[in-house]
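[agent] plan:
  1. take the single chain provided in the ticket
  2. run structure prediction with default settings
  3. attach structure tokens to the ticket
  4. add a short note for the reviewer (M.T.)
[agent] executing step 1
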Amino acid sequence: MSTPFDTPQHSGSTRTRLNSVPAEGGSGGGGGGTNVDTQRLDEAANALVELRGATENADNGADDDCLSASRGLNKHSAGGMAEAGSWATAGSLVTMDVRWGSQVINLKSLLQDISDKLHTTSGHYTSTEQEEQARQHSISTPFG
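[agent] step 2 finished; step 3 output follows
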């Protein structure tokens, strides 16, 4: 599975270069500036949303399998949870399934947070560059 960070893909993408005007007279401001490919940030954020959905599907499959196995173990014993005389493994499967579900909720929350932050960062870079370009265009020069 490839990610938006694997290989450079510059055709058709929006590239933002902060501080795009070089320093006058070679002083201050440093050299190359910061290049940010906002489309790649958005692609990464969208990939995380897709991963979040795939995590949900994996969780649903694990839930179904654990509950099915627990029911199967209990079917061949006195029934109920381990306290009622059924297989102790059945109760342990349910306990682990609950723990798994908790971890999946945490993972999905983390993926969503990162995705939101990538989208926000992309938006900030874009608006900052637009503001800087507008500022540069508004500067009048003696040459017209």
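[agent] step 4 note for reviewer: The longest strand covers residues 15-18.
[agent] ticket updated
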